[in-house]
Amino acid sequence: MNYIFLAGIGNSEPEHWQSIWFRALGGRWVEHAHWDQPRADRWVADLDRAIRELSGPKVLIGHSLGCLLAVEWARCHRDAGVKGSFLVAPPDVGGPNFPKSAVGFAPATGGTPPLPALVVASTDDPYASFASAHSAAKAWGAAIASVGERGHINLASNIGAWNEGRALFDRFVAGLGAS
Q1: What is the C-alpha separation between 60 and 55, in angstroms, rounded?
Q2: Would the N or C end of the chain have less CB density within 10 A of its end CB?
Q3: Is the pTM higher than 0.90?
Q4: CATH number of 2-176
């Protein structure tokens, strides 16, 4: 299984759970030329290039804006071996704290991406209410898991390697039948 990591705006710090998992699992970290000025079309092209450079089955592991990137990519691309998406803390595009510098990312609507997904959300995320995350999961045809009060499930959440999330991820991947 190839794991493809999709960080959010600004990238993930070395001690962010996503970076820790990357070091433990290996895989591909999708890099962007403009981490602080994200444009959906450019980020989707970066992701598509990374996906096509890898053979075999793949799972996307997105955090924050990386979740929206995974969904944007899945709406437009097929047959690339992507088996599923693990989407942590998707921000609400229409919410008051959505970064103004992020351009072209669509709000969660119908048009379900054609792959299994699990949305993981906290109940006190400043970038999306749990109701918003639940609506996004429903629009994307994804399952949802609540992890309680964990903020944006990032470095500021003080969760280290985030073992609770890793257990959710491991069950998700096992359910894909391609671990």
Answers
A1: 14
A2: C
A3: yes
A4: 3.40.50.1820
